[in-house]
């Protein structure tokens, strides 16, 4: 399959492609495994699940799944939100309209994680339903250092979905049925290379998720040239028509080992005020409207549970459009 339509303002129809454009020499390597070859036409790359991967999980049933309530809930986040769920966020978000997709260019890092059962990721969320048991979520971005899931500290491209607030449905990447991949050059769960360094070169990836207005499937594109695949419409109840909220930003798990806040870093591990080359960013954040047009989001709000641990600052300019810096070091003198 191919998507029937791309959002207007992104690509011409004749550019809709399942592979790279012809000027191979000008494109950086997107993933480390590409150094060792490509998959033949008619196949897709799948990251091998090994015995030790399963053994790292707390149970076979939980392998490849997120814990409940890992979506930031800006308006109703009470004081017990952190201690109850252990997930912390620094996000920008929009709500109050019908959304048919979202796009962002995301700075890639390899933040440090304190405990094997913690992770640090940066992603976009496409959400429908309430934040109770009927939440539908489509998620995509980069996930760094999730030792439980991957066994190493590389930054990796990932997707996730759920149709019941992470209770029984959904998983990362291709670890359960759901997402249908059509691309033979990009592997979900594979390492992204190169990554950004503090006061060094900065590298980012672009992710677009949009709803096909004809078939109703939710498609994902990586960069300008790779249409990766789609989430079939039948997976969802509250994303059948449109999304009600879009979120962009970072998430970490804070397991509060020994009663202290985790030192797990979000993004670069540095606060937003440090700016380019030091702090991590999302730039050119956009939504897809009901006319299948990519446009700047209106009334962007921000949310973080503890700004002394992880923070977010939004901005706007000509080259980056709507953007924000986000992240932080976790435990510090102001974040005990």
Describe this structure as you would to a colleague.
4% of the residues lie in helices and 32% in strands. With 336 residues, it is mainly beta. The strands form 2 sheets. Strands 2, 6, 7, 8, 9, 11, 12, 14 and 15 form a 9-stranded antiparallel β-sheet that branches. Strands 5-4-3-10-1-13 form a 6-stranded antiparallel β-sheet. Strand 3 and strand 4 form a beta hairpin. The radius of gyration is 19 Å and the shape is globular. It starts with 50 loop residues before the first helix and ends in a 9-residue tail after the last strand. The model is unreliable at 11-27 and 76-84 (pLDDT under 50). Residues 1-33 are annotated as: Disordered. Residues 16-25 have a biased composition (Polar residues).
Strand elements, count? 15
What is the chain-wise order of helices and strands?
Answer: HHEEEEHEEEEEEEEEEE
The largest sheet, given as strand count, sense and whether it forms a barrel, is: 9 strands, antiparallel
- Individual helix count: 3
Show the helix and strand layout.
Layout: H1 51-56, H2 81-85, E1 87-99, E2 101-107, E3 120-128, E4 136-144, H3 147-150, E5 155-162, E6 180-181, E7 204-211, E8 218-222, E9 226-231, E10 243-253, E11 280-288, E12 294-295, E13 301-304, E14 311-317, E15 321-327
Antiparallel strand pairs: 1-10, 1-13, 2-7, 2-11, 3-4, 3-10, 4-5, 6-9, 7-8, 8-9, 11-12, 11-15, 14-15
Protein name: Neprosin PEP catalytic domain-containing protein
Domain Neprosin PEP catalytic: 81-336
Organism: Ilex paraguariensis
Summarize this structure as a short list of keywords or feature phrases.
nine-stranded antiparallel β-sheet; mainly beta; six-stranded antiparallel β-sheet
């Amino acid at each position: 399959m191919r998507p029937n339509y791309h959002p207007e303002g992104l690509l011409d129809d004749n550019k809709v492609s399942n592979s790279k454009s012809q000027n191979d020499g000008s494109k950086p390597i997107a993933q480390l495994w590409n150094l060792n070859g490509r998959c033949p036409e008619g196949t897709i790359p799948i990251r091998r699940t090994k015995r030790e991967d399963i053994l790292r999980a707390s149970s076979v049933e939980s392998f490849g799944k997120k814990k409940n309530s890992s979506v930031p809930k800006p308006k109703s986040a009470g004081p017990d939100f952190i201690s109850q769920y252990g997930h912390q966020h620094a996000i920008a978000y929009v709500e109050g309209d019908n959304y048919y997709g979202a796009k962002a260019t995301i700075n890639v890092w390899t933040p440090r994680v304190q405990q094997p059962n913690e992770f640090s990721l940066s992603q976009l969320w496409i959400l429908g339903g309430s934040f109770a048991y009927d939440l539908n979520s489509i998620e995509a971005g980069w996930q760094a250092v999730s030792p439980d899931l991957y066994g190493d500290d590389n930054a990796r491209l990932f997707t996730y979905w759920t149709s019941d607030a992470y209770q029984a449905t959904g998983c990362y990447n291709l670890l359960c049925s759901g997402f249908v991949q059509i691309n033979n050059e990009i592997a979900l769960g594979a390492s992204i290379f190169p990554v950004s360094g503090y006061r060094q070169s900065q590298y980012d990836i672009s992710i677009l998720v949009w709803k096909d207005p004809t078939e109703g499937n939710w498609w994902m594109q990586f960069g300008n040239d790779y249409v990766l695949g789609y989430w079939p419409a039948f997976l969802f109840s509250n994303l059948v028509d449109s999304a009600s909220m879009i979120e962009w930003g970072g998430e970490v798990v804070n397991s509060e080992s020994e009663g202290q806040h985790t030192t797990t870093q979000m993004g670069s591990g540095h606060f937003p005020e440090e700016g380019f080359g030091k702090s991590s960013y999302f730039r050119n954040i956009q939504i897809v409207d009901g006319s299948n047009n990519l446009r700047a989001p209106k009334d962007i709000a921000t949310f973080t549970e503890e700004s002394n641990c992880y923070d977010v600052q939004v901005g706007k300019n000509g080259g980056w459009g709507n953007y924000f810096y986000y992240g932080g070091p976790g435990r510090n003198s102001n974040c005990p």
